[in-house]
Amino acid sequence: MAEAAQSIIPTTAPNRSFEGHESVINAVAVLPDGRRMVTSSGDTFYLWDLKDGVVMKKMVGHRSSVLAVAVSNDGQLIASGDANGELIAWQGDTGELSTPSLKVRSNRITTLDFSPDRDALLASGYDWMVKLWSTNTWQVQGNPMNCGADVNCVRFSPSGELLAVATSKDIHIWDPRTRDSVAIIKAASDKNISLAWTPDGTRLLSAGSYSDRTIREWNASTWKQVGEPWRGHTDQINALAVNASGTLLASASSDNHVRLWRLSDRRNVAVFEHSQPARCVTFSADGKYILSGGVDQKVSGWAIPKAAFSEDDPEDHASEYALLEDATSKILPIYTMVRNACIIGDLPTAEELLTRHIEADGNNHKSYVNRSLVVARKCDWDYALSDAAKSVSIQPSLAGYISQGIALCGKKLLQDAMNAFDLAFMFTDGDSETILLLLLAITLFNANQHEDAILRIQQLATACPAADTLACCVVEAYLHVQLGNNALDELRHNKAVDHFTAAINSGAFSSEQAIHSKYEDFVVLFGWDLKSLWETANKKRCHALLRAGRLTEAHGAYRYMMDMSDEATTASCPFEQDCNALFTSSGDAALAAMDYDKAIELYSSAIDLNSSNSTDTMFEKRCRARLDKMLWEDALLDAQKIAELNPLSYLGHQLKHEALHGARRYDEAIAAFEFMLSKLNDSPDPQIRELRQQYITPPEAAMIIQEFTRAQLENSTPYRLLNTTGHVCDRVAQINTFKLSTEYKELLSSTMKHADMRMERIEKAVKMYFRCVMLSHRWEEIEPLLRDIQDKDISELDHVGGIAKLQSFCRTARDAGFRWAWVDTCCIDQNNIFEVQQSVNSMFTWYRHAALTIVYLSDVPPSSKSGALAKSVWNTRGWTVQEFLAPEVVLFYQQDWTLYLDDRSPNHKKSATIIQELADVTGIDSQSLVAFRPDEGSAREKLQWVSMRVTTLQEDIAYSLFGIFRVNLPVIYGEKKQNALGRLLQEVVAQSGDITCLNWVGKPSEFNSCLPANITLYKTLPSPLSSSSEDVMETSVLSLRDAGAVELASTLYTTLDQLPTPRFANRRLHLPCIVFAVTEVTPRPGQEDNPFFAYEVKADGLCDLLITTEDKLIPSPREMPIRPKLLLVRPRDRDLLEPDGCAEQFNLADDAQSTITEDYGTAPSSPLCDSPGMRPGENAPIDSEPDSRVSQMIIRLRQPFSAFLLAQQRGVEYKRIASEQNIIARVKDGASIRDVTDVRTLEIV
């Protein structure tokens, strides 16, 4: 069993003192040569000559307090670490710098140790990581070791094969070579502060904090504790040191003492007393002195007494008994040495002394009483009862019956115990009755009679005026503390708070008397710590409040304790760190749960608890919570505090940027960001410098924004815009206005930081800033042009005519929250042909990307009913088609700039009433009106929509359709409408291959004979063609059962499939088609005065046709060749090969041996050749097999089709002969597949 500290008179006068330090001494080390010593005080490092006691060198280089020192085994290197996490290596022989200052941690370095071979240096602090640094490269070796808690001390084993790490939770043993965890030791009940190895590496010594102020010894082979903890210190043990021979251990404590222990028997053999807490300790090289330092700002040298080196002969202890005398006590005659041993908790020593005394004199009843009370402290109730009975049997006494009552209570024999106390009262006088009653209450309390005990004390204090009221208060306070501890153990935190509060309010501390000395009997009998009772009650209440989640009250309780405490109590209070930890963890949890108010409150409490020593980390946490809460100014104060506490870090400036950005103080935010970048660039930590790659500078961000803005505006925004405040702005003015805006500065501030969302953020901001409102309207007689408003404030012009409309439009757009608007009258320079051309080709895109299009109906009176829109002239204008189809959001305004039908919905395209009204008047289906897409629908259908529209300039009827057809063409005013329309349709066919625009009747265009002279010819849609009956289709397919017919049909299908798409360029249409040669043209008689001529036309393979045209055809009988050569052609389109469905599931391979026939069945109806047909749109199912496609083609060929009559011109050129009606042709009954095999591409002019 480990021996506890004996009652030793401390040595207060050191043999030597090394003075001249300017601050607290945090570290001391002796160099291997034994002649020199290094000490740290403040930010200065001292090298001493031990012989002369003078400073050889002040080693300057740190910028904050040096907290840790290490000397290599060979003395060649000295390392020092400071509170800023900076490390400096020094040459051991000269004290000169070996390396410049290295930033090895983000916070303080609290412990250092060299490996035995000096190749590695351990450095750690108040985080969970332990890093090994190479002393050759000063780079980190391998991966850090994560210990799961704050690191307080690290020590290599003497062989270097193991590494011990003391943390705030446990002790970790690591293999430093493999980084494998060897063992985890659950040591001190609270924090493990210091470590030391024995020279042979077989034992590890550890020391704890205030709540477990013991030294523990560990077997390095089993990692089991050896013996009992070593007790003696009354406060945190800050440092341990073992002498070179491994026989002695020195410990330095905040209780102002340095204790010397003998390792062989674990006895405390000497105590050396500082005037203030001791922080560090070491042995001289020869092992004759202890060197220690601390808050008293000096290093003291203590000579080790000779008695420390060998154990005394047991016979020499006989002299101890001559020194034993009865101590003065009202009721307990306890020997002085026993009393002292009991006071410090050294019960084994007290018991041994008494046992030896009893062995020397077995009839001394006091010795038995004393030993009974000592073993009762150890809860050995049988032993205690035996000694008490022996004492009473020798001589009945007050102390004897008290010890008997205590032992019986311990055995839960309460009635017998009460009888013993009743007998004790026979020996009391007036002065001792109160103490005896209190002892009875305490004894009952220890027997779990808690309520009875408290009640007895309260009754004693109130019912007995002569009672020692202070003693009652002291006992009640202590018992409440015990009850509070029990409640804490049972997790009844609110109950614990009540008990600790009752202890504090008991009145025990109202007197200025030292209760621990006045009521020392309680300390001796029960081991009470009265000296720190008030402190304990307050600390425990704080902890209980914390555990109960009553954080604000905990903060208040702590402040009360600090205000009422002396300096020593304040310095030794561990609550601050614990409270900070709990406030912080609770704040982190609240922040994660987005409870920002609670997080801010908790972080603020943590900061207030440690206001004089708050770290930048805590301000960072609160700053982030305030940022999330959008408390920008408060967050800014925190960010500035972070920068003040850690001026070398970039973090404070980063958070300052975020706070200023949130507060919309963008210029300052950008400046803060630039400062942050400079901190990143200047950081000595390569990992910190690497963070710089995430960011860009303000000029770089500005360049990115500018390039994107220009591209965005070029693609979707008019070159000129109206600022809705009243000025017209070209592209340069738009961008300059943007750069001066708050939105731009906000974007610049955010673009520098968020690389992952940079382009997305820019796009969103630019689009939002340049949201534009477009105007669709009917031009009035007088409209303001660009020259009329250039460099003028529109709002100040006369409110008349077109200016009034322009002013009202700007006001309406501005009231809707837009800053930009566009009007075709004054936002295009009509004198700049390039700008006009760009505008015409871009207008559909501008309307498509507009945030809103306002349609102004100048002829719709206020409060009009449904139907007024349909009557508006706006519906007759050519340009207004694309101005309505292109936008996604449209609002209609009446003459007085009120909403049409008072419809206040955000988008009139969502109004069924308005859309139906438009559909009825325009002939455009509602789906296209709401969500038009240029690539949907046929060209013929779109041309029909605008066939009756008008424009002021004749070419505009074609130009207004550029966007609808998604074409981009030169704008050539003066070319006339036929040419403009021709160029448009030529481009439509060339780009899409859509030849539906060739389907018209009337006068042909001069541009190309396949095109109409006027867009009005598209007004009437062609009549739908009839389809063949099922019988006809079946007959057609059955006719292909012959293998030869199948081959011809397949060849025809392949030929048609491989034809190129229609090409249209340079006014020449290259049209792939099936050609039928005209064999006979016969005019009908009696047509001399008719402007149209009717001809009966015969062609190979087709039914006879009647064609009416303005052109005169040269009659030609069958036996005469036709001049010029005429052709009837069927343009090839995809429907011929891939119809929606036109055949049942026939298989050409079936019945291949059937009779060969060339009869395709009955021909479809035609003007001159009637045959049965299906209802329009009635089709048969589609076969899924490849051969069925050929069948479907044959069926399709037999159906009526719209034919073109072509007349050969020069060479291979043909011209279309326009007809008064659609030419509907069909294949003859019985026609052969060979009659439709003339497939070619014709050039039509």
From TrEMBL:
<dbReference type="InterPro" id="IPR019734">
    <property type="entry name" value="TPR_rpt"/>
</dbReference>
<dbReference type="Pfam" id="PF06985">
    <property type="entry name" value="HET"/>
</dbReference>
<protein>
    <recommendedName>
        <fullName>Heterokaryon incompatibility domain-containing protein</fullName>
    </recommendedName>
</protein>
<feature type="repeat" description="WD">
    <location>
        <begin position="230"/>
        <end position="271"/>
    </location>
</feature>
<feature type="repeat" description="TPR">
    <location>
        <begin position="580"/>
        <end position="613"/>
    </location>
</feature>
<dbReference type="InterPro" id="IPR001680">
    <property type="entry name" value="WD40_rpt"/>
</dbReference>
<dbReference type="Pfam" id="PF00400">
    <property type="entry name" value="WD40"/>
</dbReference>
<feature type="repeat" description="WD">
    <location>
        <begin position="59"/>
        <end position="100"/>
    </location>
</feature>
<dbReference type="InterPro" id="IPR011990">
    <property type="entry name" value="TPR-like_helical_dom_sf"/>
</dbReference>
<keyword id="KW-0853">WD repeat</keyword>
<dbReference type="InterPro" id="IPR015943">
    <property type="entry name" value="WD40/YVTN_repeat-like_dom_sf"/>
</dbReference>
<feature type="region of interest" description="Disordered">
    <location>
        <begin position="1162"/>
        <end position="1186"/>
    </location>
</feature>
<feature type="domain" description="Heterokaryon incompatibility">
    <location>
        <begin position="774"/>
        <end position="862"/>
    </location>
</feature>
<feature type="repeat" description="WD">
    <location>
        <begin position="102"/>
        <end position="137"/>
    </location>
</feature>
<dbReference type="InterPro" id="IPR010730">
    <property type="entry name" value="HET"/>
</dbReference>
<feature type="repeat" description="WD">
    <location>
        <begin position="271"/>
        <end position="302"/>
    </location>
</feature>
<dbReference type="InterPro" id="IPR036322">
    <property type="entry name" value="WD40_repeat_dom_sf"/>
</dbReference>
<keyword id="KW-0802">TPR repeat</keyword>
